[in-house]
Amino acid sequence: KLLIGRSSKNLFYSALYIAYRQSDIPKTFDEITEISGLDKKILTANYRLLVSILNLEVPRIYPEDLIRAYATNLPLNVLNSAIIFARIMKNTSISQGKSPFSLAAVIVYTACRTEKYDITQKEIAKMFKTSTVTIRLLYNKIGHKLTDKTSNPSL
Q1: Where would I find the H helices in 23-99?
Q2: Strand, helix or coil at 8?
Q3: Burial of 130 (0-12, 13-18, 19+ CB in 10 A)
Q4: pTM of the full structure
Q5: How far apart, in whole angstroms, are the C-alpha atoms of residue 146 and residue 81?
Q6: Mean pLDDT, range 13-37, rounded to an integer
Q7: Alpha carbon distance, N-terminus to C-terminus of the chain
Q8: 27: which of 20, 52, 64, 90 fits an S-S bond (Cβ 3.0–4.6 Å)?
């Protein structure tokens, strides 16, 4: 009864988003709305409805997953450093309340700086669909903590 009056197309794309998340394929609502041409508000409302009705467990998106999905064009040493940083961050309270996309961008930026790989904040921001301002602010808050923890794991 709760699904009466809802478009099957909207429900399909909401279910597709859930399937992506449950399969550990990091996708955003923006990507789904771009593919489907649907309104993001309606899509998210249908997503919440399906999760509620079907009592689904939808796993969180972690920065490590996003790095693996979106930063594939970076050199291997940078990717390895970024994944190490992401794992360090996952086990701390540094990341609480922050967007996984923003965190992934900062982690990649930190890894690039650590590995002396030349890339602009603008390129990283585009890669993770965030802003350069967000990268700068988060880097100033947490970037040095990541590099400190890798050089001295007891911190």
Answers
A1: 29-36, 40-53, 63-70, 76-90
A2: helix
A3: buried
A4: 0.80
A5: 10
A6: 92
A7: 54
A8: 20
Q: How many CB atoms lie within 10 A of CB 142?
A: 20
CB-based contacts of 3, cutoff 8 Å, min separation 6: 11, 49, 53
Helix H or strand E segment including 99:
none
User: How crowded is the C-beta side of 95, counted as CA atoms within 13 Å?
Assistant: 23
**Sequence letter at residue 109:** Y
What is the residue whose two structure tokens read 């970037």?
Answer: 143
Residues 153, 143: Cα–Cα separation, whole Å: 15
Q: How far apart are CA 4 and CA 149, in angstroms?
A: 52
Contact between residue 86 and residue 63 where contact means Cβ atoms under 8 Å apart:
yes
Render pLDDT for 88-117 as a digit per residue (tens, 0 to 9): 888 777 778 888 999 999 999 999 999 999
Spatial CA neighbour of 110 closest among 87, 139, 130, 152: 139
